[in-house]
């Protein structure tokens, strides 16, 4: 099944956060090489990022996650640590934040 970035984030997903399609600045997929699932990322004009996971067959997993605007390395590190506490894998965090998995690992090593 072919996935289209424009259809992953529905109008209802954006409306939950008071946004419309015109507020989307960037859309991207990151593919998990092990299972073929994709993390869809929509960056909004207010700096927040919306995340949605879609399996290789197109099944949407869970709800849309909202990551607040990150303005510093300290904020990024706090978000990484928080996501880890909530059972999100390093690979998923790296895809969500568009950083390398080594960066995530280094942040978690410095606890």
Automatic annotation (TrEMBL):
<dbReference type="InterPro" id="IPR010921">
    <property type="entry name" value="Trp_repressor/repl_initiator"/>
</dbReference>
<protein>
    <recommendedName>
        <fullName>HTH cro/C1-type domain-containing protein</fullName>
    </recommendedName>
</protein>
<feature type="domain" description="HTH cro/C1-type">
    <location>
        <begin position="85"/>
        <end position="111"/>
    </location>
</feature>
<dbReference type="InterPro" id="IPR038116">
    <property type="entry name" value="TrpR-like_sf"/>
</dbReference>
<dbReference type="InterPro" id="IPR001387">
    <property type="entry name" value="Cro/C1-type_HTH"/>
</dbReference>
<dbReference type="InterPro" id="IPR000831">
    <property type="entry name" value="Trp_repress"/>
</dbReference>
<dbReference type="Pfam" id="PF01371">
    <property type="entry name" value="Trp_repressor"/>
</dbReference>
């Amino acid at each position: 099944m072919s996935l289209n970035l424009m259809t992953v984030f529905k109008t209802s997903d954006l409306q939950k956060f008071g946004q419309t399609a015109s507020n989307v600045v960037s859309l991207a997929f990151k593919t998990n090489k092990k299972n073929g699932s994709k993390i869809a990322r929509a960056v909004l004009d207010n700096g927040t990022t919306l995340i949605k996971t879609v399996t290789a067959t197109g099944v949407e997993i869970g709800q849309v996650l909202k990551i607040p605007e990150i303005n510093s390395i300290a904020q990024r590190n706090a978000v990484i640590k928080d996501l880890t506490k909530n059972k999100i894998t390093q690979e998923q965090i790296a895809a969500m934040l568009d950083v390398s998995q080594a960066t995530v690992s280094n942040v978690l090593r410095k606890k």
